[in-house]
Structures are given as C-alpha cells and as structure tokens.
Amino acid sequence: MAGRKLSRQQIERIRELHENRRQRAHDKAARVAEQLLEGELGVAEAGSVVTHHGATLIVEDADGALIRCVARQNLGALCCGDRVLWQRGRDGGGVVVTVEPRRSLLSRPDYSGRLKPVAANIDQVLVVIAPQPDFNEFLIDRYLAAIELIGNVEAGIIINKIDLLDATSRADVDARLATYARIGYTLLPASTRTAQGLAALRERLATRTSILVGQSGVGKSSLINALLPEREILTQALSAATGHGQHTTTATTRYPLPDGGYLIDSPGVRSFELGEIDSSDLDRGFREFAAWLGHCRFSDCSHTVEPGCALLAAIERGELDARRLSAYRQLRAAIPRR
Predict the structure, then answer these.
(1) pLDDT of 79-109, one tens digit each?
(2) Is 161 marked as binding a ligand?
(3) 222 among annotated binding-site residues
(4) 216 is in an annotated binding site
(5) Binding of Zn(2+): at which residues (predicted)?
(6) What is the CATH number of domain 281-333?
C-alpha cells in the first residue's frame, strides 16, 4: 500500500527540522575547530574519511588508525571516501584542513531537494537483484543510467539468491539479462545460503572501493554480512572512535575487505534515483548508444519518431535492443522541461 502523502506544512516542517539539525552540527564543528586551532597542531597528514556523524569525521590515517576529527568551515560538505589532509591536536583528535579533488561522487537529494554528497572516490557500483522479489528490467536500466552519469565508475549486476532457481527458471533469468552482458556489464550470480559465487564476487571487489544498491528484499544486508565477516569488530572500533556509543547503521561507512579494497555500506542510498539532469545528458546513461550518438539527422533528436534517427535505424538492423531504447524514452519523458 502506498504511503500517506505529506502535506505542504509537514514537508516544510521536516525541512525546517533538518536545516536546524544541520546548523547545530555546523556550529558545533566551528566551536570544536576553534578550540583545536587555539592549541598546537601537528604537521599535515594524509587520510581518508571512513564515516561522518554530524560534526564528527572519522579519518583513517596512513597506519590504519581511526582519528576523530572536525573540519574547517571553508571545506564544504565532506563525505565517506573523501581523501583529506588533517592535522593532529594535542588531545589526539584532529582538524581536516584540505580535501583532495574527488575522482567520483555519489549524491542524493536531501529533504530540501538539495544534492547531498554520500560517497566519494568510489570505483564501482553493483546493482543487486534477486528472483524473489522478481526484478524489473526498467529499474535496472534506471540504476545503470544513474551510475553511468556519475562518471569514472564501473557498474555490474549481482544476481543474488541464485539458489532459489531451478534449471528452467535460471535459463529464463539468463535470457532476460543477456542484453546487459552483451553491452559489457558483468553479471555476478551469488547465494549467501550456499556460498555460490561469493569467491568470484570477492575477486571483483578486491582492490576496488565499491557500493551496493538495489531494491528492498533482494538481500543486500546478507551479502554485506557475508563479505564482511569481521563487521561487528569493525563497528565496535568505529563506536570507540566516535565516542557516540553504538555506531549507527544509518551512517554511510567504509569497511576494509579481507582480500583488499573497501565496501561502503550506505543504507540511505541503497536505492537511488537519477539526479537533476538535462534530457541531452541521459544519452550518456546508456553506454551502447555511444556508437550512434551524433549521427542522427537532427542534433536535438529525441530518438522517438524523427526521420534519420541513427538509433532507430540500428534497431531496424538488429544492432540495438528495442526494450533499452523504450526504457530511455520512459526516463527521458520523466525529466522536467526547463
């Protein structure tokens, strides 16, 4: 059943509460930074943000130690995965003084509609699907388009709960997903119950910084727990570093993987949407279109009914999947006109 629609007054109240919370965190960070700056700070050291709790950043230093830090006010919003320079204070805490340019950034809208950075410098986003609940190809297309538009990020598809499929249903799933394999997306079958495919998944994750996304019920949490056998110990270390008691499961957090690389757990972004884009940008969200883009008769071709459309011609020749173009049109139609 659909959730109850919020009234305008309720939406404004939620925005006000979140803005007040953001301002309190900002003020607290300013006070703590001022106190630290009054003391003697050490030399600048390289580190990376592991998690973010309001005004508190947990930074991992070059030796793997977790340092509780605050950021200087002029740095803007920091997030999990940011590479930073920080200086140690006399009390063992630190101040983040510089943020390095981000190679990639995953964002999502906050309650006010403004884009909020969630995870930086990620190497890949893996879309998790499952036979139960049955997957929807259009949702996969929407995820993949959003990932492609991040830029400098790999994408793949995990078919979880593969143990639920018999030979006939497995063949049906393979046929439905064949288009994605054909255009270059890696398909990773997996089962946390039988451990099938987990070795290949660990190999895919090794040396990369990855994040999993997908609809509710597809088994993301079970996968994360299987991939992070020492997650509870790591969580306890984070709790000690923050000084806030139990580490919250709603905070985006980067965990080291046993075989190398990192896995970012971000419950708030396991399901995410296309951001604010122009319709012309959406072309880049469908990687297989690249060979034909720029070859349409009209420069502003919408790839629907225009004569001389290179994509429509490719479909007629059997070189392009018609269902994927249909998904593109559906996403394009939902983009507000400016």
Answers:
(1) 999 999 999 987 778 999 999 999 999 988 7
(2) yes
(3) yes
(4) yes
(5) 296, 301, 303, 309
(6) 1.10.40.50
